[in-house]
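job 3f2a | input accepted
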Amino acid sequence: MIVNTKRFGQIEIDNNQMIVFESPILGFGDFQKYILLQSEEKASPFEFLQSAENEDLSFIVTDPFVFFPQYEFQLEPHWLESLAITNESDITIMVIVTVRSSDDISCNLKAPVVINKSNNSAAQIVLDYGGYTTQQPLLREKKGAGINADSVKK
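job 3f2a | predicted structure (154 res):
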């Protein structure tokens, strides 16, 4: 199958690479089929979740545990059933990354993307607990924080 993308051009994929969202990405309910593409930088912790139905629609995603090791939540039984999850090792958790500028990057920890690798079903799940936010800063400190902008003494 050929998938057209703005960022990567035409990509040929196998049908087993297609991720189908049982519960769509919030705000994008018309699109359910995606593919996960590696960043062009080999050691990058970021990937692209590219719509197979809309070449203009792509999300930057990452493994939240790389940046937030204490991140945790419990999947409710209806999600386990909906995604046909039978083994915890089949689960991949990703979060959507928003880049507003080079020093303003955040992750949506409130609504992680859960992927069942064994059948490529997925859902974006909104967590009702945990105190997580949709705009958790990825950078610990903004560039230039703590630097006195007026270095001329008067």
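job 3f2a | Confidence is low (pLDDT under 50) at residues 142-154.
job 3f2a | closed
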